[in-house]
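Try it yourself: sequence plus ascorbic acid, in.
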Amino acid sequence: MSSYHLSESKSIAMMKFLALCFFVISLINIPIAEARIRHYKWELKYEYKSPDCYKKLVITINGRTPGPTILAQQNDTVIVEVKNSLLTANTAIHWHGIRQIGTPWFDGTEGVTQCPILPGDTFVYKFVVDRPGTYLYHAHYGMQREDGLFGSIRVALPDGESEPFAYNYDRSIILTDWYHKSTFEQAVGLSSIPFQWVMEPQSLLIQGKGRFNCSAANPPMKADVCNNTNPECSLYSTTVVPGKTYRLRISSLTALSALSFQIEGHNMTVVEADGHYVEPFVVKNLFIYSGETYSVLVYTDQDPARNYWITTNVVSRNATTPPGLAVLNYYPNHPRRSPPTIPPSGPMWNDMDSRFNQSVAIRARKGHVYSPPASSDRVIVLLNTQNRVNGKTRWSVNNVSYDIPHTPYLIALKENLLHTFSQTPPPEGYDFANYDIKAVQNNTNATASDAIYRLQLNSTVDIVLQNANTMNPNNSETHPWHLHGHDFWVLGYGEGKFDPINDPKKYNLVDPIMKNTVPVHPFGWTAFRFKADNPGVWAFHCHIESHFFMGMGVAFEEGIERVGKLPSSIMGCGETKHLLKP
Ligand SMILES: O=C1O[C@H]([C@@H](O)CO)C(O)=C1O
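Structure, out:
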């Protein structure tokens, strides 16, 4: 009896306590089971590592590259405190695919949205992840991304909501290419006269690991420089159990290479691209360009007595880089046990048709189609080619090479420092009638500019990326273009010169996929549409590290008058110094 009374009074006390908790929570206005804060503290350092067995300076986040995966749920607020312990280098981190609605100052693009973070300083990024999906983060300062400063962002649906496909396990894999030369030397070479090209990367890394063949190095390398028995460069191995479905979130942050990705003996069903659901399609190999993210479903239905190769190889360039290898480890085989087969080779590097066909095959998933506006208010055509400016080899857009300003646009525009960058608007197109996109580009006296495109807030803009021949005969390259602050509808791809009368009639306005990064294929064009509805200043550029460094980019401004008060933490460089109170 007494024990009954005791437990009854206990439970009443408990209920009272809970009621009090809810009351307090409602007073301080914390939504229950809603958006949460995800707080990360990162320290960036240069460290000697051997990701492909060759010892080199690498940027680590809390000792690792790739850095920690940011795990969040839709509408969470992510706070990342970045301490720059690079000693002698500035930095800035871009949250790739996150639109930064209401926080354009935390896009992390040096020169566009913020000043660089100085050595010793701590910069706090704070933004909302407003959509589920697979995103990335990486350095956006000089060519620093290539040093290993990158990682994944995985945004889950809110509790109680489910994806339109089923899977048992979820994994993230980032693909990169890897140079043995430092990015400092590469950057200086690219801006030297004569021009020194970075050449092809030495290795491909899968989730930060690869294997350079040290014994084949010419001239030979000592064991303290390159050592194939170093455990740091044991291949990436991911363990699976037979008979399950795995969601693999595959992304590419290569410096240069376009890739094909494949898993021996397993098909992949593509279900997501750049944070949007894709009408599922099955591939044996996935073509992936720098800045893209995909989710594929893989069913582990093969002979469980062995492991399988995961491979990636360069496409679109006749590269010297050997394929990247990793292991799909069927439990309970040993994770390091090599598969008994020769690693399967991917498609031929110059198999353009297959790549083009995959681009065209990607459609929005039925039931998840966001229709684009039926027409646009403005069409900007961007010719992609090389040229020479003051003797330097550059990439250019409509024959203008892009220079990143020293005073970030966002601050310059908001604070009326318009003298800090060119006010001559960049060209809306090129000499369409007379320009031969198949001819060797011979514009040896082109111009450079830091001017930007000013867009009407809430207007609909069409971009047509037109590829062309470079300064080398019979050569046009693949360029993955990434737009900050927005997603866009991919309206179409074509070969040859874009026809402004007839090609728009063939645009897909029914079920176009939305993306933030899209390839323009050699000698081809790519068209997309977006709504300029996110007040701020946003970079749009080729995601090839050396190409953006050489001027292959532009910037868009929209609704600057709607941008809220800028945090002083983004200031301190160029003319913004004067804005900081003593
Ligand atoms: O930017 C580049 O420069 C070289 C080459 O065009 C220079 O001759 C190349 O292949 C690039 O992608």
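One thing you can check immediately is this: The chain has five helices and 32 strands.
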